[in-house]
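Problem 3 from the worked examples.
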Amino acid sequence: MGEFFAAIVSPNVPFIRYALIAGILAAPAFGVVGSYVVVNRISYLAGAIAHSVLAGIGLSLFLRSRFGPSWFTPFWGAFAAAMVSALLVALATKSGRQRADSAISIVWALGTAIGVIFLTRTSGFVDPMAYLFGNILLLSAADLVGIVVLDIVVLAVALLFYPQLFALSFDQEFAEVRGMPTQAHLTILLLLTGATVVLLVSTVGIVLVITLLTLPAATAGFFARSLKRLMIVASILSAFFAVAGIGVSYAYDLPSGAGIVLFTVTGYIVAFVITKITAKNVGRRPTNEKTESRSLSI
């Protein structure tokens, strides 16, 4: 790990600093939106949006190779595809559960298929593995600007609509009775999820998006008892998992996305085991006055 810390301050390897900055900057969006996704149990919807962004990435690379619009990078192609697919998924949820499941599956499969077709028709060498499994070490300074802008927008919208999204998350029926447009707020949540997915694609890739979107929030759920605290803890865990995964991937020459996900899954398992052991010990503890006074003194 000494080489990793030396690389951080070295002017010859700026991509390491870019990767660390990207992981830390994007962590609040992962924690906030991931908490909403976990509480609302819409990880399947997030998975459909995540896989559909391959269509935008493939279209961007195809157009750049044929017509040369340098501004239409894969980052913004993924963003456009995520927004379109989020709207399609939101429309699908209006048509009942059975039809919604079919429509969401179509968005999932069609986006992936279109992306693969565009990638195969793109002239020059294109490594699909970097987009499927992520390579945060390939980020540039321009990508960091896009991450900062998207991060600010996601957090601003999430905090602006916090009361409405809170009601949607915990008592949707009561919110509907009160006249709240829950479908509109669900659409906002899906758009936020799509924007966060774009941030995640550059970090861990399309295939591993759901892990980093849901597991930090699920891990934080073992220790947090309110939505705000869940978001804070999930954001901190996301930043830690990203930095740790990048460090290990650099030190041992491993794929960065897989390294980050490995740390994320390990963190969840450790938190789960600790919670179970703690709950078991508490359940065995006698409840006489002597024991209670001893625990209070500790």
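Problem 4, a separate protein:
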Amino acid sequence: MIELKRILIVEDDELQREFLNETALRIDFGLELYSTGSFNEAIDIMKSNLIEAFFLDIQLEDGNGIELAKKIRSMSRYKFTPIIFLTAVPTKEMEAFHDIHSYDYLIKPYSRERLEKVMKPILIDYPSDRNQVEEELLRLDFKGVFMNVKMSDVKYIESRNRRIWIVTNKEEIKYKVIPIGSFLELLNDDFTRVHQSFIVNVKTVGAFDLKEQWITIRGRKRQIPIGTSYKMTIEEVLDELI
């Protein structure tokens, strides 16, 4: 059983940030992990995504972790979300910790053992609003920032200007430059290549016309082309679905 959790790590020291990212993923590989060293970028992330735990450095490159925590608490959906502070100077900040009702704090330098002791209860045992479901995940790596996407949510993948675009139920994700054939290897058996530039989730197929060589996805008007060399393969796949 995998419980998806979105956590945000805000740490301006790159090595420390990588250490935090690595440790979190060692505890739970299924995390949707966001990390940044920027106060302003952290604001954008928490507004665009429902974060379920925050790890905040006190001193940031463009702001202060205490002020960031106050902004977090000012949003009703984050009123009780766990906040863990990372600090090298545990003095005056202590009063703010209590005012903000932080879950815990880590004094730098901290060991992996101490970090895991704080992280594990949050990442494994802390209640989540999400239902626990068995899901196959597509793990995307954005230069060390990892994002997990449910494969069942992916409708199709397009290679555009050598870059991969992942179209889900809710969004289009612009991913890295990678051959579409290599990307297909990351997917499960629900996906098949229908064109040199397209992969589709066969479980989301709507209408199709093999003679005119196009296929559509439920909920989308766009006609995806079927390449001549893939026509026989997609015909066999569709025959199994009908």
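Solution to problem 4. DSSP finds seven helices and 17 strands in the chain. The longest strand covers residues 154-160.
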